[in-house]
Design a protein that fits this description.
The complex is a heterodimer. Chain A is built from 28 helices and 40 strands. By secondary structure, chain A is α+β, with helices and mostly antiparallel strands. Chain B has one domain: Class I glutamine amidotransferase (GATase) domain (Rossmann fold), CATH 3.40.50.880. In chain B, β10 and β11 form a beta hairpin. In chain B, the strands form 2 sheets. A 9-stranded mixed sheet of chain B has the order 2-1-3-4-11-10-9-6-7, with helices on both faces. Chain B has a two-stranded antiparallel ribbon with strand order 5-8. Chain B contains 7 helices and 11 strands. By secondary structure, chain B is α/β, with parallel strands linked by helices. Classes of the chains: A alpha+beta, B alpha/beta. Chains A and B meet through α1, α2, α3, α12 and α15 of A and α1, α3, β5 and β6 of B.
């Protein structure tokens, strides 16, 4: 068979300018121009006419693009003297949805000679005269390729013309290895764990050894890998379930039980439908519907391959929501990166530049969220040097489902059904990968752990599952995440047992060993328990929505996990051992005295009383405060037609909303959902316990600011921490968990789900540890009873009165306290909102009162006169908001807040100046300019 | 009786339910039918009085937005859709639907295909800024010939959400007769009422002549990039908390539904 190469180009390709800017920012000042062409490789047998048809009808837009093609190997095109060609293609096996469509569409238009396809890109680089020798051109091109244009994890590339590689067609491999474990010494057990990247410690390895001594045989590789995945930090949360001994001798038996679940149990809110037991937390919405919420992290994959990591992060959390039979209706994304203007020479070896990580992550979120048709409506982006080597990517998803249709009850004789994408070698050992510290080689050796998503296949899953749910076609459902079928099928059959055959699983390409099929993390797959008589109805639905259905076995009721590869039994284990046999981890924790340093934060300018104006403008354009519009606008936040309070708001839609409000399509009445978040790595470095209170308060006050009922807010926890085997790290994790418990009870706000990502550390080639700041994300989901009463933060009208609401403490603390009155203040404010007394509200957070007031001016393009002590203008506090009240409502408003702390501080003015009595006078134009021009980009 | 509207659900449509809501509110009896289902029963189309190709990312925009859906339209439904259009029944393609109508030649219309010797002379290509963008825009109903936009007085305020919405033509395109035949249906406009004149972000994608939507010479087929179906209730307006409520997209759908019921 021949391979043909197509080159498609548009001389005015808008991607060129962006690439040139990126290259310059990354330090390649000598690059003069860069031009991108798309490459398509077609394997098959085609006549000249077929090639032409393919180019004209399929591969080009005839109005804007041109194409040329040739059969490979082709004579090298003559090198132009002043430019260099770099070609990049995906590695074999990396998901390439475009390539799949080329084959399908070629057949559709009658070009049957197309067998396989692959895609790639050509970059034509031109340097200025300082880079002229062929050696310096080669070096510069190689460096740009590594820094910007290709990623060894998923690409191969070459200077000159690339030869595409298609996955080799191997014969199916039934190879099963037996792992001798029964006679290993302690050291040998640990060596085995390391060799297979199992991330298991000695007691865990010994538990496996003892089990197989009892079974009088050694495990197969499939069994060993199954246990490693099932017992991974990612799947079983062993740190949060560990027995922790504190330095004062106190013992905590499981952080989850002691602090998180127990808070939810004590609050015992009647509107919590499901907490901590399912793929997502579920709360009551109205008489007809329930809503679910889950947030996941995809940190390690995003560090190695930002686009794919974030892409599959979104896909994964969407499947979590599908796993509770809900239709996904909103996404949230909270991202933490290193400084965007980091000098490349300070970049640790093997680490991508934060700017490249951000652009890849954002593109990955955009690609998946937009294409699958879920609005991305809430989020945050934070910058800190602690995230240079370990970016954090939190992906959240909200779902809605009619009450009573979600089933979690597999029956004996049900079939084990896999829906969706095919299985390849993708993401092998992802669960254990994410449970290990990374090093400079991680990117190379863990290549297979990273993959690219296919949102349209997952859209098909949504279409099928929502309808299958309504038709009651399944008895149980779960998603394939880390650990693949081993986790999904293993979990689902944990009480009942199953017998499955791996030769039934549909593969992307042959040649996978049984353990690879069983462990593969190929995306876009769900596992269902379906009664035999309902299979045909499900089949029909799947055909309608181009979704594949595979029957791989049955639920047996025998309590054992049996996996076959054709005739060979490759797993035969007791479910009780697999799911409850993991020894509880014993961890030590040291609670350090909260650091008393009030360190000058590197990312935030400090207040200088003498120069209030300049300080304020610096704050507004500082990375963590400045506008994120360049990211927000590339996410679709309007699809599904329910977005009531949008992420950007105000007269010119360029001011930051405190929270998002959506009214789900198809619901009756005027109820809506409020989404907000709280996160503060800076406080995390200083005092984990007080940080936790602060971020709880932040999430709740943001939700209340737009109109959420404070009595109807639930939260999720997402902990991103360092290595818990270090007692100080464990100590701060204990303190944060205790903070979750105490703050949840204080507000009456239950946790409904959570997740942890530990070992966010990077052992640099320099031998130094690069750990992230202890980072806790609190994601809040609230109810607003009438979306028409939603409040935005933009000033509405001149002459209105501005109040500071809440107990403002002028003293700058290391981490601000949460005022005792906060819950009462929020309830009273909510009353005032539902009584129609509030025109705008905005919470005080980073940068304090001055930044809050300035953002309200930006939103309304109106001025404000306030009187406030200049020394407290930038003080960061909890529990406080600024609100705008019409003069006629002043008395009614004040009576609502009777006995609670509030203070009139100023008025709204038509004159577009922000005037602070005796301190500053700044034009709104200047505020807008500062906010919209982040100083780090 | 309410006119029956068919919403064609392709592999990757995602604003199908949004437009269903809009059409229902506008008085139609709207049904979503998956493309594969319609393939099994093509004559079904003739039972309907109105056809919608909704927004989304059909086939993930592989090889160009709307391109592979256009291929589906051409290879599975060419006769049926031609008959539907020829009968003068209202058709609307929004965003990805618009892209598919243009890339299948249904828009700007048969004549253009012939004149260009069956080669496309207009397209929707990448936004000038080079990336996807979601923001609210103002569009002015221009065409008096298009059954969807005629008699609309007020400008429509609604979001765009696309990466490939830049309407461009090549030398083969008969621009003067296109304008003469009143085929510019909707144009990006400043809130003051004057045309964007290419100014970003009022014209968010760089479209030639600020074109946001076009129709066929008969005026029954409309394609547009913005999403009027996402502004059919007051609380969807980006400044509803400021008391603003103008520019509902519902009237456009009411026009189509009214025409379909005649």
């Amino acid at each position: 068979m021949s391979i043909y190469k197509f080159l498609v180009y548009n001389n005015n390709d808008p991607r060129n300018a962006g690439l040139l800017t990126d290259a310059h920012v990354l330090g390649f000042q000598h690059l003069q121009s860069i031009v991108i062409h798309d490459l398509y490789f077609i394997e098959g047998q085609l006549p000249q006419e077929g090639l032409q048809q393919l180019a004209l009808k399929l591969l080009t837009d005839p109005v804007t693009q041109s194409a040329s093609w040739m059969e490979l190997p082709a004579p090298l095109s003559p090198a132009e003297t002043d430019s260099v060609i770099l070609e990049v293609a995906l590695r074999p096996g990396v998901t390439d949805p475009v390539a799949e469509q080329i084959v399908r569409a070629a057949h559709q238009i009658g070009i049957y000679g197309v067998h396989r396809a692959a895609t790639g890109q050509r970059f034509i680089l031109r340097f200025d005269s300082s880079i002229s020798s062929s050696e310096s051109i080669r070096l510069s091109t190689t460096a740009i390729s590594a820094a910007l244009l290709a990623n060894n994890v998923i690409h191969h590339w070459t200077i000159g013309e690339i030869t595409p590689s298609f996955p080799e067609e191997l014969a199916s491999s039934g190879l099963v290895e037996i792992i001798s474990i029964r006679n290993l010494s302690a050291n040998e057990l640990l060596a085995l764990s390391k060799e297979r990247r199992a991330a298991l410690d000695l007691p865990e390895m010994q538990a496996i050894q003892n089990y197989f001594i009892k079974e009088q045989r050694d495990p197969s590789d499939v069994e060993f890998e199954t246990i490693a995945q099932t017992w991974s930090e990612h799947c079983v949360h062993k740190t949060f379930k560990a027995k922790v001994t504190l330095d004062d001798g106190q013992v905590i038996d499981s952080l989850i039980k002691t602090y998180l679940k127990s808070a939810t149990d004590k609050i015992n809110a009647p509107w919590v439908i499901s907490a901590f037991i399912d793929n997502a937390g579920i709360i009551d919405f109205d008489d007809e519907f329930e809503i679910s919420f889950k947030a996941e992290t995809h940190n390690h994959p995003s560090a190695v391959e930002p686009f794919g990591g974030a892409n599959t992060g979104v896909g994964g959390v969407v499947r979590d929501v599908l796993g509770v039979s809900a239709k996904p209706i909103a996404n949230t994304d909270i991202l933490c990166f290193g400084p965007q203007n980091l000098d490349p020479k300070f970049l640790p070896e093997g680490v991508l530049h934060p700017r490249r990580i951000q652009s890849g992550v954002v593109a990955g979120v955009q690609d998946y969220g937009n294409k699958i048709g879920i609005p991305t409506i809430n989020g945050a982006i934070l910058y800190d040097e602690g995230y240079i080597a370990n970016p954090l990517v939190f992906c959240g998803c909200v779902g809605i489902a009619p009450k009573g249709l979600h089933r979690k009850d597999p029956q004996v004789a049900d079939r084990v059904i896999v829906l969706g994408g095919r299985t390849g070698r993708d993401g092998l050992r992802g669960a254990t990968f994410s449970s290990m510290t990374m090093d400079a080689q991680t990117g190379d050796v863990s290549g297979a752990s990273v993959q690219i998503g296919d949102p349209i296949t997952e859209k098909g899953l949504i279409d099928v599952i929502i309808r299958a749910r309504d038709l009651k076609l399944y008895n149980d459902i779960t998603d394939c995440g880390a650990g693949g079928l081993s986790s999904a099928v293993g979990e689902m059959t944990s009480t009942i047992g199953c017998d499955v055959d791996l030769t039934q699983v549909r593969l992307k390409y042959p040649g996978l060993a049984p353990w690879e099929i069983w462990l593969s993390e190929a995306q876009e797959r769900m596992v269902l328990a379906v009664a035999p008589e309902k299979i045909s109805a499900l089949h029909k639905l799947c055909e309608t929505f181009d979704t594949e259905l595979t029957d791989i076995g049955e639920f047996t009721g025998k309590g054992r996990l049996i996996v076959r590869y054709g005739e060979t039994v490759v797993v035969n284990m007791d479910n009780e051992f697999l799911h409850n046999g993991i020894p509880q981890r014993q961890l030590k924790a040291v609670i350090e005295n909260p650091s008393i340093r009030l360190s000058a934060s590197k990312s935030v300018p400090q207040a200088v009383p003498q120069a209030v104006s300049q300080t304020l403008l610096n704050f507004l354009s500082s990375p963590n405060v400045a506008s994120k519009a360049h990211v927000i606008r590339i996410y679709d936040h309007e699809v599904q037609g329910g977005t009531v309070v949008k992420p950007l708001t105000g007269v010119e839609a360029d001011a930051p909303s405190d929270a998002a409000v959506i009214k789900p399509i198809g619901t009756k009445g005027m109820k809506g959902i409020v989404l907000s978040n709280g996160i503060n790595p800076e406080y995390g470095k200083r005092n984990a316990y007080k940080m936790t209170w602060s971020v709880m308060d932040e999430a709740i006050r943001n939700a209340v600011a737009v109109g959420a009922d404070p009595e109807r807010i639930a939260v999720l926890d997402n902990f991103c921490w360092g290595d818990p085997l270090r007692p100080e790290t464990m100590g701060s994790l204990v303190e944060a968990s205790r903070g979750c418990h105490d703050a949840a009870l204080f507000y009456g706000t239950p946790f409904i789900s959570g997740k942890d990502s530990l070992n966010n550390e990077y052992l640099g080639a320099d031998g130094l540890r690069h750990a992230i700041p202890p980072t806790l994300l609190i994601s809040a989901i609230g109810i607003i009873h009438d979306v028409r009463q939603a409040i935005t933060m933009d000033l509405k009208e001149a002459h209105n009165i501005i109040y500071l609401v809440g107990d403002f403490s002028a003293e700058q603390k290391t981490v601000p306290d949460v005022p005792v009155s906060a819950p009462q203040v929020y309830r009273a404010l909510h009353q005032a909102i539902t009584s129609g007394l509030i025109r705008s509200a905005h919470d005080l957070s980073e940068g304090g009162l001055a930044v809050t007031a300035a953002e309200m001016c930006i939103g309304g393009r109106l001025g404000m006169d306030i009187s406030f002590e200049s020394s407290a203008l930038f003080t960061e506090v909890n529990g406080c908001l600024l609100v705008e009240v019409t003069p006629v409502n002043v008395a009614a408003f004040e009576s609502q807040l009777d006995n609670l702390p509030y203070k009139q501080i100023g008025t709204v003015t038509q004159n577009p100046f922000f005037n602070i009595l005796e301190s500053a006078s700044i034009s709104v134009t200047d505020l807008v300019h500062a906010f919209n021009n982040p100083n780090h980009l | 009786m309410k006119p029956k509207a068919l919403i064609l659900q392709a592999h990757g449509s995602n604003r199908d339910f949004d437009v269903m809501e809009a059409l229902t509110l506008a008085g139609a009896d709207a049904t979503g039918i998956p493309l594969n289902e319609l393939r099994m029963n093509k004559t079904l189309l003739s039972d309907f009085q109105l056809l919608v190709v909704p927004g989304g990312f059909s086939y993930a925009d592989a090889l160009g937005a709307g391109k592979l859906l256009a291929l589906d339209l051409a290879s599975y439904f060419e006769e049926e859709i031609s008959a539907f259009v020829y009968a003068g029944k209202p058709v609307i393609g929004i965003c990805n639907g618009f892209q598919a109508l243009v890339k299948s030649g249904i828009l700007p219309g048969e004549k253009y295909k012939e004149r260009g010797k069956k080669e496309a002379s207009s397209t929707l290509t990448f936004n000038e800024k080079g990336h996807f963008e979601c923001r609210w825009v103002t569009i002015k109903p221009v065409s008096k010939n298009c059954i969807w936009t005629k008699n609309l007085i007020e400008n429509i305020t609604c979001p765009i959400a696309h990466g490939e919405g830049n309407f461009q033509t090549n030398d083969l395109f008969p621009l003067s007769s296109f304008i003469e035949q009143d085929q510019i249906a909707l144009a990006y406009t400043h809130t003051s009422g004057s045309l964007a004149n290419g100014e970003y972000p009022t014209n968010p994608n760089g479209s030639t002549l600020d074109i946001a939507g076009i129709c066929n010479p008969q005026g029954n087929v409309l394609g547009l990039m913005p999403h009027p179906e996402n502004h059919i209730r007051t609380w969807q307006h980006p400044r509803h908390t400021r008391g603003e409520s103008s520019g509902s997209g519902l009237k456009l759908f009411e026009n189509g539904v009214k025409y379909a019921s005649n």
